[in-house]
Fold this sequence. Notes:
The protein is of the alpha+beta class. The protein has helices at residues 156-163, 169-183, 254-294, 304-343, 408-411, 415-436, 454-463, 473-497, 525-537, 562-567, 601-617, and strands at residues 3-5, 10-12, 17-35, 47-48, 54-55, 58-59, 65-73, 83-89, 107-112, 117-122, 131-140, 143-153, 195-196, 202-203, 205-206, 214-215, 370-377, 386-391, 398-401, 442-447, 511-519, 543-549, 569-571, 576-581, 586-591. The radius of gyration is 29 Å and the shape is globular.
Amino acid sequence: MTAELVRGQNHPLPRTRLEIRISAGKPIMAGATLADEQGQVTSGEWVAHPGSPQLPGLEVSRQAAADHRLAVDLEALPEGVHRVNVLLALPLGRGGPASFAALAAPFVAVTGLDGAEVASYTVTGLDTESAVVAMELYRRQGAWKVRAVGQGYAGGLADMLADQGVAQAGELARVIENAVASGLARSVAAPPPQRHLPDGGTGGSVTPDGAGSVDYAHPRRPTTAPPPPPPAAPPARPEQPAQPVAGDANGWSMEERLYNQIWGMFEDLARTVAAYRSAVDFAESRMEQELDRALADPRSRIGSAGTRAREQARSKRDQLMAQAHGALDRDLAQLMAESQVVEVALPPAFARWDNPVWHRYRVPMEIPMALRVGDLYLPERPELCIPMLVRLPLERGLWVDSGRTAADPGALLDPGQLRMRAMDTAVALAVRLLAVYPAGEFAVHVIDPAGSAAGPLAPLVRSGALDVPPVPGAPGVAAVLARLTRRVDLVQMAVRGGAADSLPADLDTAEQLLIVNDFPHGFDDRALTQLRYLADEGPSVGVHLLLVADREDAIEYGPLLDPLWRSLLRITPTPDDHLADPWVGHAWTYEPLLTPPGSQVLQQVLGQVGEARRSWLR
Length: 618
C-alpha cells in the first residue's frame, strides 16, 4: 500500500533501486544533491542537474519537463553519502511562472522499478518560492527511508544550493539555469489522465465534463490541417504524411518509447474506427429521417416526387459513407505504415515469434517493462494488429480458455485439438517469460494430472527449464501446490515483519509460474482452496498462475470458482473477439502468439535459457 506522506513524515524504503516520479503540470527543472551525514553537499560535483544528469547511483532528467523520472540506486551511491535531496526549480526568465504559487501543487512519488508506489507526497503550501527541496532519501542506522520535506526558497536555486553548503552556489545555479534554458524547446507537456485498457493497462483521456467521452488524439500526431499558403504564392502540393519512426514517443529508454508508441497506436486505431462507425451510423440515421420527412404526406409516397426524395436521401447517405471510408482508409494506411516500422524495431519481449530479433536472442541481464502476450485487431482492418502488452512482473494470472468459443477457427477443431492448441499457447507464453527474465530469476512449475500435455511440454522438459518434471496424479498436484503455498506464506510473513533476510536458505526467491493443465481434473477440495489462494495472494509476492481449462469442465462447482475466473486474464488459443472496450464499444479480437509452422525458434531460445540456468546453478 502506498504511504501518502505529509510534510515531515518519513517512511521506510523496502528496496534500493528506485524511481522518483514527479508531476507538476508545467515544465520545471528536477535535480538532486548528494549530502553527507550532516546534510552538507561537500562538492558541486555532487549535484545532479540537466547539465550534468548522471552521478554514481543517480540519474536525473536532461531538460525541463512537466513530468520527470529520476533513477536511484542507493547501493551504488558514493561512499560517505547519507542523504539524497530531490530538488525542483522553475525555469525563470522564459515567460513561465515566477513562483510555485502559479502552479498546481507538485506531486512526487517514490516507486519501485515495476512502477509500484512506495510513498508519495504532494508539495502544498508554496507561495513566492521558485525552488523547493521536495523529498529526501536518507540513511539511518543502515536503513534507508524517505521523508517529505517541502522546504521552499524565494531566492531560487542559488539560495537552495547555498543552504546545503554548496560552494559558489550562485555560479552553479547560473550553469544549471543555462542548461535548462537550452533544453526548454524540448520540454514535454503534461500527459492526459489515463484510462484502463482491455488488458488492465492504461491510455487515452476522459473529458472533464463527466459525459464519459474519450479523447483519442495522440499527443504526437497532428490533429489540425497545415496553414494554407499565402495568397500570392503558387498553389502548394498536398502535404505528405510524416514518415513513421520507431520509438517516436516519450520515454527515458528506447524500450519505454516503443511501449508508449504501441499504446498510442492502440488509441489511434480505437479513435479512427470509433469515428468511422459513428459516421456510418449518422449517415444511415440521416437517410431514415429524411425519408420519413419527405414521405410523411401519403400523397408524396408514390409518383416522381417520392422517387426523387428516395434518391436524394440515398445519394446523401452514399456521399457521407464515401467520406467516412476515405477518412478511415487514410488513417489506417498511416497506422499500417507505422506498425510495419515499429514491428521490426521491437525487442524480444515485444516481438512476435517470426521477428528476426529472436534469431539474435541472448539471455537478458534485466527484466523488461512489459511482455507481448498476443495481438489485438478490429474487423475493419484485421491485418493491422496492435501488440497486446502486459506489464511485468505480472499483476494477475492468465487463463487460456480451452473451451469452444464463437470464433470460426475454433469451430474447425474438435475438443481434443482445442485442448492441445490451448496447451501450445500456454507453453509459448511460458517460454516468452523464461526468455525475458535473467537467468535464475524466473522458474516454471507444471501440474498435469493426467499427463495429457506431455507433447506440448516436451520442449520445456528437454531444455532443463523446469526444476522438477511434471508428476502425474493427485500426489503431484498436492506436492506442487504445497510447495508454492509455503513460499507465498513465508514471503508474506517476511515482508510484513520487515525480515526479508530471514527467509529459509532453500526458498527460491525467483518469480514463479505455475502452469495448470486440464483443470479441475485431479483437484480435491483442499487443492482447489490452495489454487484460489495462489491466484489471489501469489502475484504480490512473485507467484503467478497460468491456467489451461474449459470452464464447462468445472461447472459442477457452481459459483465457488467464479472469483478464480474473474481474477485471471482470459485469452484464447484461437482468434476470438472477447476483449471489450467499454469506452468506445469496440470488441477487440485477440489472437495468440504461436510459432510459425516448422520453426525451431522455441527450441533455440529454450536451449539458451536452459544453458544459462545450468551455468547459474553451478
